[in-house]
Design goal:
- It is built from five helices and 13 strands.
- With 253 residues, the chain is an alpha+beta fold.
- The chain has a domain at 108-247.
- The strands form three sheets. An eight-stranded antiparallel sheet has the order 6-7-8-9-13-12-11-10.
- It is globular, with a radius of gyration of 47 Å.
Length: 253
């Protein structure tokens, strides 16, 4: 039968492998019995009918620790012989988890008298798309808005114009360049200038943001605010903007 020493590849007393001194079995071990008789491991023993071995009590609070140490020692020794480390607790699922990337946010679009401007919500940086930008580049910059309806209008007063139309904004191109934009009621609450002016803005708020000239024309109640042009529903202060444009447009007067 294999002994503890056999498991680690050596014979004999397990204490020999560790280099620890073995207890001296030749020395006398003395026990006290109830009648005062003595027992010696090396000599003879006096037999007493009531002889009993008296043990010194062990402190109660250390016994569980000694028991656990005695149970764990063989297991640790066996693992050491096999070149194995004691098992470690498995890491929690969240410890090595790679955080999911935050979803990207589409840039905000602002209209202005010189063209368009894209704002990155994450960094606050702005990217202008001025009039004169190559037509293909202007459309590529707005690809995040989805594919627009495209075509060509041959009957505009400024001459034939290419167009790209979303449900809230129309861009105009001419001779391969971005030349204008137009927004109507469909852009209300969705398209505006950096000052917050867009379709649906009242005349009162328009005049608070820009120096405005309002006049009547064949198109209706028209206004000019710097490089911005548009129509109001009426001349009243609370009248909303119904159309807004800049650059070259395709309005029939």
């Amino acid at each position: 039968m294999n002994t503890f020493g056999d498991t680690c590849g050596f014979k004999g007393d397990p204490g020999a492998s560790s280099g620890e001194p073995l207890p001296d079995r030749s020395s006398s071990t003395v026990f006290r019995h109830a009648a005062g008789a003595l027992y010696t491991g090396a000599g003879s023993r006096a037999v007493h009918p009531r002889a009993r071995r008296t043990r010194m009590p062990m402190p109660a609070d250390t016994r569980p620790l000694r028991t656990l140490a005695a149970l764990a020692a063989p297991l640790l020794a066996l693992l050491a012989c096999r070149g194995e480390a004691p098992p470690e607790p498995a890491p929690s699922a969240s410890a090595g988890a790679t955080p999911s990337p935050s979803p990207s946010v589409a840039p905000a679009l602002a209209i202005e008298g010189e063209g368009l401007r894209l704002f990155d919500p994450a960094t606050g940086s702005a990217r202008p798309i001025p009039f004169g930008t190559p037509w293909d580049q202007a459309l590529a910059a707005l690809a995040v808005r989805g594919a627009p309806a495209t075509g060509r209008n041959e009957e505009c007063g400024a001459g034939p114009l290419d167009f790209a139309r979303w449900d809230d904004l129309t861009l105009y191109g001419q001779d391969g360049a971005f030349v204008g934009w137009f927004a109507d009621r469909g852009a209300q609450g969705r398209i505006a200038t950096a000052a917050g002016v867009g379709p649906g803005t009242s005349r009162l708020d328009l005049e608070a943001a820009y120096a405005v000239e309002v006049f009547e024309s064949t198109l209706g109640t028209e206004f000019v605010a710097g490089d911005l042009y548009g129509l109001l529903d009426s001349p009243h202060p609370d009248s909303p903007i119904t159309a807004l444009w800049a650059g070259t447009s395709c309005n029939f007067r």
